[in-house]
Design goal:
Blueprint lengths: L8 E10 L2 E10 L2 E6 L9 E4 L5 E3 L1 E6 L12 H10 L2 E6 L11 H11 L6 E4 L1 E2 L8 H7 L4 E4 L13 H11 L6 E4 L14 H7 L2 H18 L3 E3 L8 H9 L4 E5 L1 H5 L21 H13 L4 E2 L36 H9 L6 H15 L16 E11 L18 E11 L2 E3 L9 E2 L20
Parallel strand pairs: 1-4, 6-7, 7-8, 8-18, 9-10, 10-11, 11-12, 12-13, 13-14
Antiparallel strand pairs: 1-2, 2-3, 5-15, 15-16, 16-17
Helix pairs in contact: 4-6
This protein binds zinc ion.
The site of zinc ion has 5 residues, from loops.
């Protein structure tokens, strides 16, 4: 079998996670898509049959919040390393953020530069967010036409000079321009008027400088812009659990608003961040344990829709962490961003299972919701017509994270040394079993799921049969 001919596949699991829950099932795959789903004993003539027995099979994860940083800051991460790490973590589609690459993806020309950089080196499928910044309103329509899945904006300093925040008026104008497309405006929601300079380099001072009220005020701004424009809005990396009620009530009032949180907010608490360990720094910050409880409740009752990584690595030097020395990072000056793309599923599962959540919840939070946010209807579920992207996940395996063993470009991660429960064991992309060492089969996808011109990787066209 050549790399560009996946043939047909019949895959069985006694724990297949389908849209209506987990059960004994089999899926038949043809031309890279799910052609039939039936009982465990489903009979089809297939080139290959895989029987996973009691090993659960989930839809491949969709991580709608990844900072790949290529081109321009490829020393931080890159398409080859990020997508290989994603694959190893059971993530079969990532959505790249418009920053911190250089150029930032705020023009069609910059998108073309990014597509050229990504082409041919992606191990999983990749879609792209555009960026909304002051002055690029005329680019919104052309960027949508060129295939971006929606737009990201900041309401507070992004840390990248060429990606400034929008004012309230600019947010309203951008959302008004975006509304007819149905594509979402995804917002980094912290209000600059509520953010201050930390009093010292400690973690507590950093958390105090970016309080929950900063998120609350910014979410109010987003709700107001969504109501004004009729557009769809999404809050990225919600960290303040008490804002979930605000989001829920806006939604009850008919506003098209969704929210994600991230594995680190669900796993860590501020009380346990050791001095100098700037690998924990991100914005908004990981808050205290009582807040973590509120986030889990909001996930449970649906006020938070999904969980995605916000994988945002940089070089160890920018974290103030020199290799081989005791961490002595300063939380005032270290770059913000947590590296976790390969770890999302086991991190969230390690806590979720103890709280009585199921693998079906994981698939809803980490596959189905992000796929719908990104406008990728063939992603995020095991169902007839969907792309045959699967991940086999051993929910009971216990293992200890070693940052140096991850496929991220840099080993720095706050999960280093943590013991997790649950491990990705096998992954399929478009019906082909894939490994990080294999040839990159990922495609570059536009909103709706079509393959972007100039973006088809060598051997990436799976529809030829
Ligand atoms: Zn981010």
């Amino acid at each position: 079998m050549s790399d560009d001919d996946t043939g047909t596949l019949l895959i069985r699991s006694r724990r297949m996670v389908l849209p209506d829950g987990e059960r004994e099932a089999a899926a038949f795959v043809r031309n890279g898509r799910v052609d039939a789903v039936g009982g465990y004993d489903l009979r089809r003539d297939a080139d290959r049959t895989v029987d996973l027995g009691d090993l659960p099979l989930l839809p491949g994860l969709v991580d709608s919040h990844v900072h790949v940083n290529e081109p321009g800051r490829t020393e931080w991460e890159g398409f080859a390393s990020a997508t290989r790490a994603a694959l190893a973590g059971g993530v079969t589609t990532i959505c790249d953020m418009p920053l911190n690459s250089s150029p930032v993806t705020t023009t069609v020309e910059a998108l073309r530069v990014k597509l050229a950089a990504a082409a041919g080196q992606c191990a999983v499928d990749v879609a792209f967010w555009g960026g909304a910044v002051p002055g690029n309103l005329p680019e919104i329509g052309p960027l949508l036409d060129a295939g971006v899945i929606g737009f990201k904006c900041f309401l507070v300093d992004s840390g990248i000079d060429e990606f400034p925040p929008l004012s309230r008026e600019e947010l309203r104008a951008a959302m008004t321009a975006l509304a007819p497309s149905g594509a979402p405006m995804i917002v980094h929601a912290e209000d600059p008027a509520e953010v201050s300079d930390p009093a010292d380099g400690s973690y507590d001072a950093f958390v105090a400088s970016r309080p929950p009220v900063a998120e609350r005020r910014a979410i109010e701004t987003v709700i107001s812009a969504a109501a004004f424009s009729g557009g769809r809005a999404h809050i990225v990396h919600l960290a303040a659990g008490d804002c979930a009620a605000l989001i829920g009530s806006a939604r009850a009032a008919g506003i098209a608003l969704t929210a994600e949180t991230c594995p680190h907010y669900l796993f860590f608490a501020a009380e346990e961040v050791p001095a100098g360990h700037t690998e924990f720094k991100c914005c908004p910050p990981v808050r205290y344990a009582v807040n973590r409880e509120a986030l889990w409740r909001a996930l449970g009752d649906g006020a938070i829709d999904g969980v995605v990584s916000d994988h945002s690595p940089c070089t160890p030097a920018l974290k103030g962490l020199a290799p081989g020395t005791e961490p002595g990072g300063d939380f005032r000056t270290a770059w913000g961003g947590i590296s976790s793309l390969q770890l999302g599923l086991p991190v969230v599962w390690s806590v979720a299972r103890r709280r009585g959540f199921t693998l079906a919840d994981m698939a809803r939070w980490m596959s189905a919701f992000p796929a719908s946010l990104a406008g990728l209807p063939a992603k995020g579920q095991i169902a007839v017509g969907s792309d045959a992207d699967f991940t086999a996940f051993d929910p009971d395996a216990s293992w200890t994270v070693r940052g140096s063993e991850l496929l991220h470009k840099h080993p720095v991660t706050p999960y280093d040394g943590r013991t997790l429960t649950g491990r990705v064991t096998r992954t399929w992309l478009g019906g082909a079993e894939v490994t990080p060492d294999g040839p990159p089969r990922g495609r570059l996808l536009a909103r709706g799921g079509s393959v972007m011109s100039g973006g088809a990787a060598e051997g990436g066209n799976r529809l030829g049969g």
